[in-house]
Amino acid sequence: MHVPHPTVHKEYNTYMNSVDKFDQIRSVYEINRKSKKWWHHVFFYFIDACITNTFITYS
């Protein structure tokens, strides 16, 4: 009996390596700023994400 299933697991395994690479690079070169405002943390995360994605794309 053949049960159809989505091919999501193949895509997950394909792109999971990129996510691990992103997290590893971002944790090393993270912009650490102390702030009590929540939006500062979100803003600096997006700056980190932009820089990291640019580095990964360039490499």
Automatic annotation (TrEMBL):
The keyword Signal does not apply. It comes from the Eukaryota. The chain crosses the membrane at residues 38-58. Keywords: Membrane, Transmembrane, Transmembrane helix. Residues 4-55 form the PiggyBac transposable element-derived protein domain. Pfam families: DDE_Tnp_1_7 (PF13843). PANTHER family: PIGGYBAC TRANSPOSABLE ELEMENT-DERIVED PROTEIN 4. This is PiggyBac transposable element-derived protein domain-containing protein. It comes from Rhamnusium bicolor.
